[in-house]
Amino acid sequence: MDPALRNKTAIVGVGYTSMERKSGRSLPDVAMEAARNAIADAGLTPADIDGYAGTPKAPNASAFHWDGVDEISERYMGSALGLNLRWASDFNRGVVGDAVAAAIQSLVTGTANYVLCLRAMYERPGVRYAASESSASGGPEQFTAPYGVGIGAMAMWLQRYMHDYGATREELFDVVSALRGHAQLNPYAYWRGKPLTLEDYLTSRWVYEPMCLYDYDIPVTGAGAVVLTTADRAKALPHRPAYISGFVSTRERGDAIFEASGIGREAVQAAQLYDGFSPVVWKWLEELGFAGKGEAHEFTRDGRIAHGGALPVTTFGGSQGEGRLHGMGHVREGAMQVMGRAGDRQVPGLENCLVALGFDAVPSWVLMLSTG
Amino acid sequence: MTTNARPLPVPDPESQPYWDAAARHALELPYCDACARYVFPPRPTCTSCPDELRWVAVSGRGTVYSFAVMHESYMRGFDPPYLVAQIELDEQPGLRLTTNLIGCEPDDARIGMRVEVTFEDRGEGVAVPQFRPTAEGGA
Q1: What's the complex ipTM?
Q2: Which residues does chain A have within 8 Å of residue B75's beta carbon, measured at their own beta carbons?
Q3: CB–CB of B82 and A148 under 8 A?
Q4: What span, in angstroms and rounded, lies between the C-alpha atoms of B66 and A129?
Q5: Helix, strand, or coil (residue A15)
Q6: pTM confidence score
Q7: Domain A3-125+220-241 grouped into CATH 3.30.428.10
């Protein structure tokens, strides 16, 4: 990223829905609620929105890929909300970083002035999210599905990490526990009101052992949205802008975000680290240099990543505690922390918040948000 | 469930020789003579140079790089618990296949375990490489 782009754009509005399982709600219903909430939160109306960036992909093995059923496109959203879009695009990778980065790029190039980014997820009743009925698999899956390997790669990464560095499941619970604890402070979190003990964790059922049920994020029906605009336009809107101080692809080395933003690692006061699988938090802490290689399992001890700790991580509970929105929760929480609107979750005096989306196997983007 | 109900691979032009070899119970991988390295998964050319790849029979011996025990029945034809593994082949550091580890109880699986290829027939003209502990054992 060209340093000239620091603080030239900002997140100015956020929108939520509830996060439900076995919900009677449709995908368009939650998508439009989140979008309208974000637009209104920004002090705007749908008529102001002239750009749209989405990541509609339903990545689960049982997905239909039907627009308006388990995926929702810019075409659907543009017409359903009556938007007058000058620019709109959908991105094929489900994690929301591509949409946010495209929004930033469209704003700094003058392609659009107010951009809506959406992620909506649908948990189809009666279908196991990760189950596959497929009798034949091509592409990369020809080398995994015939072995009954769906999302098992992360468990094998964890097994190797535990072997190489002496990490334990009790230590991984430090991550899960922090996320679940943060969810207790988040009114939208699926797991709010349901704390998790070490015993619950260690006795829960295995999925791909050594990963158990609580090492995976929670599939929900729900949506999240943010509105971005240029810095000059942001100043006229109701909330303190959450400026985009830096954005770098995860193809770049982990610490590129600190150079891009001019905000050093030591100045980061909270980090919204992607947590689709609990070991991803360890991966990110090492990739970003907060912990040395093989040392993240020690870094996350003693509440260090919980609220009040040295580096509060994923302060809203994440995909594990709030629900799986493929990073939109992380973007929204980063913005709310910078805006000073995170309520019981607010990190005192926060000026800089890092947002790391995806992980090495699921490339996306890293953002630095700040008060500017 | 019968093993025939398990998912079958759908070969593409790049992977067809791999599955053709597997059907003959042979493990063959694409190799670049110029770079002296194997390329996997198969690609139209070497990934380090533009040269064509040549299919070469490999030893079928390796070590368990990592593994996991699957306890859920997400995939048809598999009765949990079963072992999934990444096997690093002896031919080249980092050359790994994702596969099943068979002939081994889940509790006995270990990183570093020596393994060899075996083949599971999945109906007419289809077999998939799997791995089992070698007689010498060791971890």
Answers
A1: 0.95
A2: 131-132, 145, 148-150
A3: yes
A4: 25
A5: strand
A6: 0.96
A7: no
